[in-house]
Amino acid sequence: MFMFLFLAAYSYAQSGLNKKYSAQQLKQDLEFLKQQLFDAHANPFTELSKAQYEKLFDSISAAIPDSADITTFYRIIKPAFANLSDEHSAISIDTNQLNNAYKNSPVFLPFTLSRRGNDFMVDNILSSNSGLVKGDKIVQINNIPIARLVQHCSMYTTGFPGQRINNALQQFGYLYGLSAIIAADHYKIKSGSRREVDVPGIDIKTWQNFINARSDNSKPCIQRIAYTRFNDAGYINSCTFMTHGDKDFKILQHEVDSIFRLIKADQPKALFIDVSKNDGGNSSVGDVIISNIYSKSYSTYQCNWRRSDEYLNLTRSWGRIDSDYFKVPVGSVIHYDSGQSYPPQNNPNRFNGKVYVIVGDGTFSSAMMFATIIKDNHIAEIIGQTPQNGHPDHFGELYNSQLPNTKLKYRFGVKEWIRPAGKQSDNYLRPDVIVDTDKYADAGELFKAISK
pLDDT tens string for the chain (452 positions)? Predict the structure, then answer.
């Protein structure tokens, strides 16, 4: 299927002034990426066996033309990342690197999809002249079955299988355009009633604005952590755990300590810690928060860490040398069992009342690890919505590099993080109490609602 779609994509004549790369250069980049993924990723064969992954790379290589610009090569190589089950992985192309057909022309479909059983329906519409309405059932686009197109688009995103399908639905027109099944300014859409609609395309900026506006983390994180009191409830909002070096971490640690001194003075009956829009960062920030709400020891994450010269050289460029990592044979996986963390006992500002941790679709990476540690150790009650994009078990500790010829930048995880409770068939963080937090104006109202 991929070969068919690739060949269809490259029948489209490219325009623009982008530099052309020879087939030899592009295949060198592809082979370089393959070696990097196979040698340095924590577990590149999570979904595909090595033989299956080799076959995928062979099909990508076969699709490389005699010469191509960076946009064309990006479209060819992008599916190499999909089957990693790595929600942090990515290969990126800047908008300015796109050829003119994609940077300046209306070649993107103007709608997202939702799914009802085996049917796919129009959801959000990004243009006023599409001729479509929300709820229209889509059967085909340019005579290709819609289910096939959704599956194809899922190969142009990353994460776990279900996550990729959700991304393909929520960003359908955008991913359809980037995958260039047919890049044009009009598309023939066949609906469930068998009527055919000629749908004009939209430009990439319209899509990017839509994606940014819908993001759970679309609002700028001006203050990393903040505290407010609402009646009998204290509310901590943390929109990121990001720190830049040891000095910045100590600054954030001081901010957390200051907040808990205020909480000590306020003496609220309950404390809400909101990480529902926290995109992660430094996992040690979560440890600092836990030390202010919990005095007992608790179990930490397990870890599988891939030993590679690629990651060793990267850390050396940062001025970091792990002598134990260096001694392990290349290709080995270093396993760390779940350990015990011991919060400092002499914390006069520790909060001893009822604690709730709020999670949602924006809870990601180290914020997900924080909430999962809370959940698995029964430290506090988890409330909110099940995060769909973040997962308790995931790959992290990112390796960043670029391809030697095209200079496309990419990243993936060299560590596999496994929750304290161990791997489970359901790799989601399920709240103890499902709450639509958007219904409540503030934490005080939320506290009243869930304490009944």
Answer: 333 343 333 333 333 346 899 999 999 999 999 999 999 999 999 999 999 999 999 999 999 999 999 999 999 999 999 999 999 999 998 888 888 878 888 999 999 999 999 999 999 999 999 999 999 999 999 999 999 999 999 999 999 999 999 999 999 999 998 886 556 788 999 988 778 999 999 999 999 999 888 775 556 778 999 999 988 899 999 999 999 989 999 999 999 999 999 999 999 999 999 999 999 999 999 999 999 999 999 999 999 999 999 999 888 888 877 778 888 999 999 999 999 999 999 999 999 999 999 999 889 999 999 999 999 999 999 999 999 888 999 999 899 999 999 999 999 999 999 999 999 989 999 999 999 877 777 666 776 777 66
CATH of the domain at 367: 3.90.226.10
Tell which residue, 413, 382, 377, 431, has the closest CA to residue 303.
Answer: 413
Kindly state whether residues 139 and 281 are assigned to the same domain.
no
Are the CB atoms for 431 and 319 separated by under 8 Å? no
| Same domain, residue pair 284 and 350 | yes
Domain of 36 in residue numbering reads as: 2-95
* Residues 296 and 169 placed together within one structural domain of the fold: no
8 Å CB contact between 368 and 280: yes
With beta carbons less than 8 A apart as the criterion, state whether 77 and 60 touch.
yes
User: What gap in Å lies between CA 149 and CA 20, rounded to an integer?
Assistant: 28
How many domains does one find in the chain?
3
Token code pair at residue 352: 């001893």
Give the Cα separation of 267 and 275 in Å (integer): 22
Q: Are residues 150 and 75 in the same domain?
A: no
If asked whether residues 234 and 372 sit together in one domain, one would say yes
Comparing CA positions, the residue from 35, 80, 33 lying closest to residue 308 is 35
